[in-house]
Amino acid sequence: MSFYVFYGSKKRFKPMSEITSYAHIKHNQVSVNGEIIFQSNPSLSLAEFLSEAYKALGVSYPKFHKMDAQCKLGFVCAEFALKGTNFLTENDLTKIAIVLSNAASSLETDRVHQHSIDDKSNYFPSPAVFVYTLPNITIGELAIKHKITGENAFFVSEQFDADLLVNYTETLIKIGTEAAIVGWVEVDGANFEAFIFLTEKQKDTNKNAIFKPLNKTSVITIYNQTIWTH
Amino acid sequence: MDALIEKLKGQIIEQLNLAEVKPEEINPDSPLFGEGLGLDSIDALELIVLLEKHYGIKIQDPKDGKTIFQSLRTMAEYIKSQGKS
Questions:
Q1: How far is A50 from chain B (nearest CA, A)?
Q2: Residues of A in contact with B18 (CB under 8 A)
Q3: Domain residue limits at B65
């Protein structure tokens, strides 16, 4: 089945975008396209879980170890979503957008930085921590890793907002974006969750049962798809 | 000097989160930036903090950093020259 949308008054049709892969991380588990593919002991801390998940990915990227928890979470989730796809080779890196969101902004790293400057007699703020006191650094880390130079935006909203993410991504697509990495990357204390999906313009090669049209219903469906085991 | 270099290796690995680097893999004469350990500008700031935090040394002129942080050995020599080892 093909999905098409109608653009403007020139009566021309453009292929609609579809979601081609997605990953969800929650409860110390990683699900890809709805199936849990990695899980660690639920008692592990976020840092320990991320270390295990990074090893499971089988990639070597030394800069990972320098990232804050939110960037590590976003990095791991995006890597799982990208693994085994042709997303980065079949799309123009200058036309791939990254659109992320969360509720806590960079609060977790803000706390770490605050702690380092609380005691005036032991005042050693870390530049490496301070650079992560903005949530959109997560986008930067993904862009650097994959040499993506398209549009980007980071939204802070009270809860996961599929409508906002889909509407904004569709707007970018209308003005030239060809593909996007979209999702939610949240770290607040011990609570964490990441959900990232890849969307790209429909191509003849994109014939796969998991592919879904990019719209709010699809995003909510895949967000709720995973049956977590703990 | 060798003891100080070994101590610096551990401190740099910890301060710069070089989790995939083992102390024995760091050549004291290799460049810290670019090639060698491949450190970046944020790491340079962390090294400045490291000198202040662990050795009480404040680099007054940022231009000196280029010479001081050329390699692990030049760092150790600078710390010695300041009488802080």
A1: 13
A2: 62, 65
A3: 2-81
Nearest to B45 among A60, A65, A127 (CB): A127
Q: Would the CB atoms of A127 and B21 count as touching at under 8 Å?
A: no
Per-residue pLDDT of A22-54, as tens digits, reads 999 999 999 999 999 999 999 999 999 999 999
pLDDT at residue number A149: 98
Chain A environment of B19 (Cβ under 8 Å): 62, 65
Task: Enter the CATH code of domain A4-223.
Answer: 3.40.47.10
Report residue A204's pLDDT band, with 50, 70 and 90 as the boundaries: low
ipTM computed for the complex: 0.78
CA distance B8 to A78: 35
Question: Which of B21, B38, B46 is opposite residue A126, by nearest beta carbon?
Answer: B46
**A62 interaction partners in chain B (CB closer than 8 Å):** 18-21, 38
**CATH code assigned at B39:** 1.10.1200.10
Write down the pLDDT at residue A44.
95
Q: Indicate whether A3 pLDDT > 50.
A: no
Q: Is B14 on the interface with A (CB under 8 A)?
A: no
